[in-house]
Amino acid sequence: MGMIDVGTKPVVLREAEAEGTIRLRAETIEAIRSGDVRKGDPLVVAEVAAIQAAKQTSLLIPHCHQLALDTVDAGFTVRSEGVTASCRVRAQARTGVEMEALVGVTAALNTIWDMVKYLEKDEAGQYPHTRIEDIRVVSKKKAG
Question: What superfamily in CATH does domain 26-143 come from?
């Protein structure tokens, strides 16, 4: 089988954006908004995680081609019920960048969970309210 041969495809501008949400307790949202998370600002750290993850996608997903990304942009919207993260990736490439966007947004959401998990645990050490959901590609573009 092996990787798909994209060697004959033209290099064109490709862009993809993915998003997803982490559901959190109201107390955790307040800690994020007020800057009271012990490990620091989870949104700043999650932005770096998204960028790093998107750049390393080919190491994580076996059939993904290694791509030189032009840009990775992560953004966050804090709502009363959780945080929605987005990751937009752009590259001049022979293949799409939607996997890079998905890996980026997933890493961002997992990073947020890691940084606030001490606030989310119940008395038994479980996470009954915390969940990551609705991870999806919201747009994909190819110019040329």
Answer: Molybdopterin cofactor biosynthesis C (MoaC) domain (3.30.70.640)
